[in-house]
Design a protein that fits this description.
With 543 residues, this protein is of the alpha/beta class. The chain is built from 20 helices and 16 strands. A seven-stranded mixed sheet has the order 10-11-12-9-8-13-14, sandwiched between helices.
């Protein structure tokens, strides 16, 4: 068994590493072109009071690039411009909207190296994890461009009086959709929710996260090249409490991804305006290793689901429940698989794990581990910062002996830290997995997939993966993705991922005769006759 003395090694430095944190092709002129996409109202005297935003590059904490900061007036102006543009867009045939999105799909794949560089520069993640964002957005673009017509098709239903009442349900765009996205997946979460909203006939106002503004602006420019009109997707940036609140106040529907605490505030604000909201929030996601599991495969899968994106992922694994019969074998396999991970600030695919995003995130992760150790937990591997690699690098960490009074047991860490817990029976595993108030994602490893499927139905989570950590469900774009409990409301992906951006409108046409008694017919006679018809329909089992 490994101990806390084990250290995860960094690969030898290569010329492509973060000795050049700013990608060489990114010029000041390009940055100027991108930042022009940040919406500014005409009232320049108001705008000039907002200080520019300057994020720090995680690889070396150097300033990235100053970008304009918006005010509530800017957001109001953006929403007004979007609302005006949406009227024509709503009447644009779906096939034409889809052509724009498919053109974007092709450009994204063609120029992916550019956005991979930007994602890494702004977030510090490993390149493979940045590429996963490109792959996911391409899949979303293709899926909804090809399936939007079916998802939004008119539905003809039986009317009140069959043959005389003709009824259909149609999908009507909400209008202006506000999208507030986080820094951890700036491309996937930044544009993955925008595309179905646009295809549904809406205009969008997005608040870019201050840590990753350039990624969204690059994407906006690419969609413009694909044929999307300027006012159909407006970008604003700035303080979340100010600009984010203004986005909620000026939208007809809100799509928010972030913390549970902020999600509650967004939901409350939207409810005040009687505006709907889709919220994907926090998670403390469990993974179960049954007694019959392939221990090696389960350990490898756990490493991926726990440490991908340096653990800064809403669906990543944080709690691992292992059957006591295979606990020792799994623990040792997991430690060895974790030890093999390569940490580096590399702009190529040589690193498995990248940096944390900020000093605050590093401090939060370190606090969870330090407190757990101080209260008796054991670090099997990791548990330390790696300033020799970069200022915000933290080793993937495996803990055991974690108890309920430790914050890492129940609170979301949002970093590369997992805790192992032994269990005795499947019922124990389900009970432990359901502890807490979150319900976003879960995983079960077992050779008996039928039994694992039975257990999945008992776990309160929006997604349950069997013999995979998280990607199988999240990458299946035709299936909904979202949470239960404190993990949120609504779903992205699948039918709900586009229908949520529409209202259902019923259109009924009454023919030949009015509903209700005719002027010549006594009401009592009409009621008696109708009661007889209702009883007959019941006997005929008419639905």
């Amino acid at each position: 068994m490994s101990t806390e003395q084990d250290q995860i090694e960094a690969p030898p430095p290569t010329p492509c590493e973060a000795t050049r944190p700013r990608p060489a092709w990114v010029t000041d002129e390009l940055i100027g072109q991108w930042t022009a996409w940040i919406h500014r109202a005409e009232t320049r005297e108001v705008n000039d009071k907002a200080a520019p935003l300057t994020a720090l590059a995680p690889y070396d904490l150097s300033p990235i690039a100053p970008v304009p900061s918006c005010t509530p007036q800017d957001v109001e102006s953006a929403a007004a411009a979007a609302r005006a543009a949406q009227l024509d867009w709503a009447h644009t045939p779906i096939a034409r909207r889809g052509a724009v999105v498919l053109a974007f799909h092709d450009l994204l794949l063609e120029r992916q190296d550019q956005v991979l560089d930007l994602i890494q520069w702004e977030t510090g993640k490993a390149r493979y994890h940045a590429w996963q964002e490109v792959a996911q957005v391409a899949a979303i673009a293709r899926h909804y461009a090809r399936r939007a017509r079916r998802y939004l098709s008119t539905r003809h239903v039986r009317g009140m009086v069959p043959g005389l009442t003709k009824v259909k349900e149609v999908r009507v765009p909400k209008g202006v959709v506000g999208v507030i996205s986080p820094w951890n997946y700036p491309l996937y979460l930044g544009v993955g929710d925008v595309l179905p909203a646009l295809l549904a006939g809406n205009a969008v106002v997005s608040k870019a996260d201050s840590q990753a503004v350039l990624t969204m602006l690059w994407t906006r420019a690419l969609l413009a090249e694909a044929g999307l009109a300027a006012d159909l997707w407006r970008i604003v940036a700035g303080d979340g409490a100010v600009v984010g609140t203004a986005v909620v106040d000026t939208s007809d529907f809100v799509c928010f991804t972030g913390s549970t605490a902020t999600g509650r505030a967004v939901a409350e604000r939207a409810a005040h305006h009687l505006v709907g909201a889709s919220l994907e929030l926090g998670g403390k996601n469990p993974l179960i290793v049954r007694a019959d599991a392939d221990v090696t495969a389960a350990a490898a899968g756990t490493v991926v689901s726990a440490f991908a994106n340096t653990g800064q992922m809403c669906i990543h694994t944080e709690r691992v429940y292992v059957h006591e019969q295979v606990y020792d074998a799994f623990r040792d396999a997991l430690v060895q698989a974790t030890k093999a991970l390569r940490l580096a600030p590399a702009y190529d695919y040589s690193a498995d794990i990248g940096s944390l995003v900020s000093s605050a995130q590093l401090a939060a992760v370190q606090d969870h581990v330090d407190e757990a150790v101080a209260k008796g937990a054991t670090v099997l591997i990791g548990g330390r910062t790696r300033p020799d690699i970069g200022p915000l690098f933290y080793e993937p960490t495996v803990l055991e002996g974690v108890t309920p009074e430790m914050a890492v047991c129940t609170a979301e860490t949002f970093g590369p830290v997992i805790a192992l817990y032994p269990y005795g029976t499947d019922n124990d595993a389900v009970r432990l997995a359901n502890q807490g108030t979150y319900g976003l994602s879960a995983s079960i490893w077992s050779k008996d997939t039928r039994e694992a499927d039975r257990m999945a139905g008992l776990i309160r989570a929006g997604s349950v993966n069997i013999n995979d950590g998280a990607a199988a469900a999240a990458g299946s774009i035709e299936a909904g993705m979202g949470g239960m409990g404190d993990s949120g409301l609504g779903r992205r992906h699948g039918a709900e991922g586009i229908r949520k951006y529409t209202e259902s409108q019923t259109v009924a046409v009454q023919r030949l005769m009015p509903l209700g008694p005719s002027p010549e017919q006594p009401v009592e006679s009409f009621v008696r006759r109708t009661n007889g018809q209702l009883a007959l329909l019941r006997k005929l089992r008419v639905r």
